[in-house]
Amino acid sequence: MTHRFPVKEIALQSGLSTATVDRVLNGRAHVSPQTRQRVKDAIEELVRQEGQLAAKGRRLFVDIVVEAPARFSREIRRASEAVLADFKPAALRPRFTFAETMTEADSVGVLNRIHKRGSQGVCLKARDTRDVRDAIARLSEKNIPVVTVFTDIPNSDRLAYAGLNNKRAGMTAAWLMQKLLGPGEQTVLTTLSQHAFQGEADRFEAFRSELQRQRSTITLLDASGGGGLNSATAQEVGETINRRGKIAGVYSMGGGNMAILTALEQAGQAPTVFIAHDLDEDNLELLRAEKLTVVLHHDLNQDMRTAFRHILAHHGIGEPPSQSESDIQVVTPMNIPARF
Known about the structure:
single chain, 12 strands, Rossmann fold, 340 residues, 6-stranded mixed β-sheet, alpha/beta
């Protein structure tokens, strides 16, 4: 495995011992494929963060742990690395742990490994469960601050939350939906990746409450639980809308929108309004093709900048941000930001 970095730096980046990294680099036996992949990923991260290696300020390792579809994890990685230069002379070194699906035990296992090896902070997107909250408490007790990102775990010992105000997002979606749909009785399909993600649950409850207040003639049909993954989401949607009446609108809170549209098309459904979240690669393509009506977007760079500022302030570097929640941007096919 070719590289140009000291074994110690690769070990720090991967969270492995120098002996394990040495075994991987020299192609020795008795190393799992997962460990080899961790070393490979760490070297790739070091290539992208090479400027941070040369920084002369204080060095802080921040672990970014995310359960999300790969398309969203890629956006989080890009946003995280895009803002690193903002914190010079401090040298922030993100270490990424991404998975499209993490069980509660998976998430706790990752957090426990971070607890054991040490870190200056964790940015966490995970389900809100008791064992995850307990793992956050153990990290906090060890002076490893946790900032939840994009979906909150509010009754935990997390330091702060950075991301969209999900209740306002749900209310915004409800206002748009009832304005864009025609009059009379209508059915709107709603999809979440997981109800255990607090952020998506907040969007759903706010959407349902506000829609009931504004237009009680709109009926909601929920097809959640696909994890935002295309195949699972398509199956959930297909089974839910089977032999149902006309679907007038869709509010997708958890992604997998190409799969949702395919399932609707196969069922002979063509909703008038489709509201989604985040300008990821899939949604940009769908928005440009006018398959989506509106995307509720928030600046991921700003969210990760906010999360990092909270962690730095915890360690006495700078001040914490005065505002942690990001603004909602209503994007249509006519006003896609130029940077995309």
